[in-house]
Design goal:
single chain, 337 residues, alpha/beta, Quinone Oxidoreductase, Chain A, domain 1, Rossmann fold, 2 domains, seven-stranded mixed sheet, six-stranded parallel sheet, 15 strands
Length: 337
Amino acid sequence: MKAYALQDGFGIENVKEVDRPIPVPARGEVLLRMKAVSLNARDITIINGYYDPNLKEPLIPVSDGVGEIVALGEGAGKFKIGERVSPTFTQGWKSGEPTKEHWASTLGYPLHGLLAEYVVLPEDGLVRVPSFLTDTEAAALPCAGVTAWHAIVEEGRVKAGDTVVVQGTGGVSLFALQFAKLQGAQVIVTSSSDSKLARAYELGADYGINYKDNPEWDQAVLARTQGKGADHIVDLGGAATLNHSISALKVGGQISVVGLLSGVSVEGLALVPALLKSARLQAINVGSRSMFENMISAIEHHRLRPVVDAEYPFSDSIKALTHLAKGSYFGKIGIRF
């Protein structure tokens, strides 16, 4: 089978097409013929060596995808041959609270990822996906979708009438916008592009802020909410945005920290404003299989479709990764097999 592996150094230039034998499922495992994968910012940070600068072994990257079951290992009976399923990001996290041990079971690192024609995985790390979604749409669900669902619904408990701020227009951001609207919330979207804000309005956003034109976007949020502040903020920027998020938050509000796009440490964290606002900061690291299944139920009920920015054939996987690295996408970037 064909696959792409990171080897002989870091960087997209070291992701090479390789030939591997088709794996054979062991007891409790299934063999998937991959139909599509979807890219996340995490994939690039792994490829560039930020997750593990000491990584020595070749690694098949990319954590998110969807495939068709083509063979069953002994004792595997949860699914049938021909069913379309998506692997969970954290294979070991089934339900409840996460543990340190769960982080050793994430796809794309430290486990091999899905950028291969065939993949073997345990059947209890798989979820059926809605039949009305395309392969590329279904492949977008495991990381971006579950992260947003965890932040907005499972942990955030956003309700009708709440004001939610969503930073940017990448995969997690647009899922958060869609899920917040399902809950009846008012959604404010920030972006550096007026054209992307216009597209966000088409998805249901109630208000848009161009943070290049309005670098003090927190003041725009306060003005929009008559000085009260937002009930919930989905923070993807990290270092450059967290203090603004605290400023834009209402007293007793929650910030879901789900991204580190501008850095991994925050100098001069505004502790006094955070204390005065009784701010709740909750880190969100994707979610469990149970959360994934809950999200699938909502998607099926509302016929919600993920936003796909671009789709590449498997042979153009390097072009897709290069597109991801540029950071100019609206929604998800997919690769179809």
